[in-house]
Amino acid sequence: MIVKHKLAFITGTAIAGATLYSLIRHKQERDQDKVRRHLSDTLTKKFDNSELYGYWIDFNQNEDGQFIGGINLLDDDNNNIKSYGFTFDLANDEINNIKLLNTESIN
Fold first, then answer.
1. What is the tally of helices (H) and strands (E) in the chain?
2. Domain ranges within the chain, ordered by starting residue
3. How, if at all, do strands 66-75 and 51-63 pair?
4. Exposed, middle or buried: residue 8 (CB in 10 Å: 0-12, 13-18, 19+)?
5. Which of 21, 46, 53, 95 to pair with 37, CA 20 to 30 A apart?
6. Max alpha carbon distance in the chain (Å)?
7. Nearest by Cα to 35 from 15, 58, 13
8. How far is CA 63 from CA 22, 34, 80, 87, 102, in A?
9. What separation in angstroms does the CA of 33 have from each of 30, 57, 85?
10. pTM score, two decimals?
11. Confidence of residue 1 (pLDDT cuts 50, 70, 90)
């Protein structure tokens, strides 16, 4: 009888843990999708005359809604790709602390 109770407890705990993990993971994915949508719109506004070559965001470096990210822009005039780092403020949809990190020539 005690074995059945232990098994039921372990099974119940495992199911609860798996459910909680699933809920947290789905919330995390929804939050990340929200950041991606807002960031894409903000990047388009900020760098409107540039050709976007790609961007990244570090979801693990989140401090009070501030995310660290980067963007690559294609400069057709010089045939270069310029890489910039920045912080993204989700609450205000603002890109701050933009710094040129690298310029790479593509031939």
1. 1, 4
2. 2-105
3. antiparallel
4. exposed
5. 21
6. 79
7. 58
8. 24, 16, 32, 10, 25
9. 5, 11, 20
10. 0.66
11. low
